[in-house]
Design brief:
By secondary structure, the protein is mostly helical. It is built from 30 helices and seven strands. A hairpin with a 3-residue loop joins strand 1 and strand 2.
Length: 713
């Protein structure tokens, strides 16, 4: 966000590296799991293990002055009251010294107690030691014994504390904390057996279960520590840099000054990253997402061009490029020579005016809104007294926006929003102001503005497409009824598109035959008239629809959906007949189009896309059926159509006397007709391949006018 100081120097904060390899945690988890499972099965099957009585007697036989007092202190420290007090005090300490990740780890420890309670209360019915031959036994003999809660809590809390203590820089203090943690973990197992509160296998099971949970916690902690362990809660991490180089620290980034340019490297704290992830389910974008930084460049330059129109000169520092510094992405922009505003009230008035203009143009306003506490820090006053904005990229996802912005975002399903440009609003604004803009900026500058707007929208779409943005998707789904409200419009658009596809395919099939000399000019014109006939036109949208769905729906989905579409169309016609919306003749026409033969053929893999060629409007015209059938059969794999010799029969050329009359060369039997498959983007395996551009286009006096006539019909 805003710059904190021009040449601030903050010493680097060294920390001890987290050195335990991930493999160690995995091995520990495996061993702990095996030991715990063995102890659990034994506890389920036997009230005690064979060596439990011998072991507890051996431990209780140990005695020396002060041991009883020591055991009492350990039991108090690891008991419910002492454990909760130590956990709470350590959590407060971590928060006070801003060890956010260790504090987060501590918050997960109570789940261990829940697991221990469930196992002891609902799975294992073993009771505590209460035999008369024991020197000491707990008075609560009937309580559940497996696994030991004291031991399990101690190994999780003090084991985690042992690892976190590696952050402590002072060697003596670090050694003291780790020694105390290790001693407590060892002593608690001994004390619970010596005191007669648990059988030895209760303690072994607790060590194993606690070790398993601790290994999982430490594995996650190590991964997070490597990624965000150096990050503070809000302010940017202290990135490695040359202290002698001119620099400044912003709330979410490090700013490096390089003469006439400024490079900004983002490294926001844990809280901004967490908020962004919760909002968009993706990492903070300006750290490593090049598309997001490129979108920021175009967005800032768009704002600069608009400010040039508003104020007669640009009021926004121009962004130049996405740079890479020490392996990190950086946003490089022009250096603005200036100082903090001398008159803060005047600067806020400028921001208020600029915010209103941004709002009108659909630009984000968070960084310049005077109600935002740090917005004033984004303004520099130059030598001539003008104000320049030096930062338009947000460091935090914030709900603080105008009601107008919220309304726009909700209507477009763009909630939450972050550095959001409402491009439709911006385009409408530019179109509305175009005459005035051209007069103020000139044609060349206005063209730059439009080009920058296009680039900003393109890069913003590319950036946002890389993020799940689940909340926005959910909101758009709710607004559209998850597609229910727009189904009619989308189906109508698809039907219109399928009609054009079907016509284009058949037109090209006829034109190709005419070009190859397989039909005469008169026949081509006749076929064009037949295609334009109303009866034939009723079939075309369904043929085109099969084309459209066959591209994304491969076998077996296509072979399932296509017959259902045919049956659905026939069902619609039947329903309309029953409701007396059409007469019986119209229904018979629908039956001739959506016939049982079409239903069966539509289920055939590959060729099912062309099933409507078997409809009566096509089937009744053998010449047209041959032309379009030749194009359809060309889709057969491994060039079977030509290799079988079937093409010689279907696509036979004109007699020689008609060829001489046309003045064209006869078509080769090996002619490579790409047909509609080229237009549809299908790869058609053939023995020889000819690019569609090599096929001569139909002449304007033959196929062209026929095609126009068909469209008009």
């Amino acid at each position: 966000m805003a710059l904190m100081a021009r040449h601030a120097t903050v010493p680097a904060l060294p920390r001890i590296a987290f050195g335990t390899p991930r493999l160690t945690y995995l091995r520990g988890a495996i061993i702990s799991t095996l030991v715990f499972l063995i102890a659990l099965v034994d506890a389920l099957l036997h009230p005690t293990t064979g060596f439990d009585l011998w072991a507890i007697k051996a431990v209780q036989g140990i005695n020396f002055p002060g041991l009883s007092t020591f055991v009492d202190q350990v039991n108090t420290l690891t008991g419910s009251d002492g454990a909760v007090a130590m956990w709470a005090a350590t959590l407060l300490l971590f928060l006070a010294i801003r060890w956010w990740l260790p504090a987060l780890g501590l918050l997960t420890l109570p789940t261990g107690g829940v697991i221990n309670y469930v196992i002891g209360e609902y799975m294992v019915s073993r009771t505590r030691p209460g035999l008369p031959e024991l020197e000491r036994a707990t008075p609560w003999v009937n309580e559940r014994s497996f696994p030991s809660g004291h031991v399990m809590g101690a190994i999780m809390f003090y084991g985690f504390l042992f690892v976190v203590a590696r952050r402590i820089r002072h060697d003596g203090l670090r050694l003291a904390v780790q020694s105390f943690s290790a001693a407590t973990i060892i002593a608690v197992g001994f004390s619970r057996v010596w005191y007669g509160a648990h059988w030895p296998t209760d303690v072994i099971g607790a060590y194993a279960l606690g070790g398993l949970l601790l290994a999982g916690l430490l594995a996650v902690y190590a991964r997070l520590d490597a990624a965000v362990g150096d990050l503070p809660l809000i302010r940017a991490a202290n990135l490695p840099h040359d202290e002698n180089r001119a620099h400044a620290h912003a709330l979410a980034s490090l700013v490096l000054f390089d003469g006439e340019t400024v490079a900004k490297i983002y490294a926001p704290g844990l809280l901004p990253r967490a908020i962004y992830w919760l909002a968009f389910q993706a990492p903070f974008p300006y750290v490593a997402n090049r598309a997001a930084l490129t979108a920021a460049i175009h967005r800032r330059n768009l704002a600069g061009l608009l400010s040039e129109y508003w104020y007669g000169e640009t009021r926004v520092a121009r962004a130049l490029e996405v740079d890479q510094i020490d392996g990190r992405l950086a946003l490089r922009s022009e250096f603005v020579a200036g100082h903090e505003p001398a008159d803060r009230a005047a600067a806020k008035a400028f921001l208020t005016d600029l915010r209103n203009r941004f709002d009108d143009a659909g630009l984000p306003t968070w960084q310049i809104d005077p109600r935002q506490p740090r917005a004033i820090d984004n303004v520099l006053e130059t030598a001539d007294g003008t104000y320049r904005i030096v930062d338009l990229e947000s460091g935090l996802v914030s709900p603080l926006a105008s009601l107008r912005t919220w309304g726009r975002a909700l209507r477009r399903g763009l909630v939450p929003f972050y550095d959001e440009v409402f491009f439709d609003v911006t385009r409408a604004y530019v179109a509305r102001e175009e005459p005035t803009m051209r007069a103020a900026l000139g044609d060349a500058r206005f063209a730059d503005l439009v080009g920058t707007l296009d680039a900003a929208e393109q890069e913003a779409a590319r950036w946002q497409a890389q993020e799940p943005r689940l909340w926005g998707r959910l909101l758009r789904g709710l607004m559209t009824g998850f597609g229910v409200k727009t189904w009619k419009r989308r189906i109508q658009a698809r039907v219109a598109g399928s009609h054009e596809w079907g016509l284009a395919w058949m037109d090209r099939a006829v034109a190709t035959w005419e070009t190859e000399g397989r039909i005469s000019t008169e026949e081509a014109v006749t076929l064009g008239e037949q295609i334009a006939a109303p009866t034939f036109q009723l079939m075309v949208p369904y043929l085109g629809a099969h084309f459209l769905i066959s591209i994304p729906l491969r076998f077996p989905l296509g072979s399932i959906v296509r017959p259902l579409m045919v049956l659905g169309a026939l069902a619609v016609a039947t329903t309309r007949l029953l409701r007396r919306q059409i007469d019986r003749d119209a229904w018979k026409l629908a039956w001739s189009i959506h016939s049982p033969l079409v239903v069966v053929l539509s289920a055939v893999p590959g060729f099912g896309s062309f099933a409507y060629l078997a409809a009566k409007p096509v089937r009744g015209n053998r010449l047209l059926l041959r032309a379009v059938g030749d194009s359809a059969l060309g889709k057969t794999p491994w060039n079977l159509y030509e290799r079988s010799g079937l093409r010689r029969i279907i696509a036979r050329p004109l007699p020689s006397e008609e060829i001489e009359a046309k003045g064209t060369a006869p078509a080769s039997e090996d002619a490579n007709d790409e047909g509609p498959a080229w237009e549809l983007g299908w790869a058609m395996p053939r023995a020889k391949q000819t690019h569609p551009a090599a096929v001569p286009a139909p002449t304007a006096t033959t196929f062209g006018p026929r095609k126009v006539a068909a469209r008009a019909a």
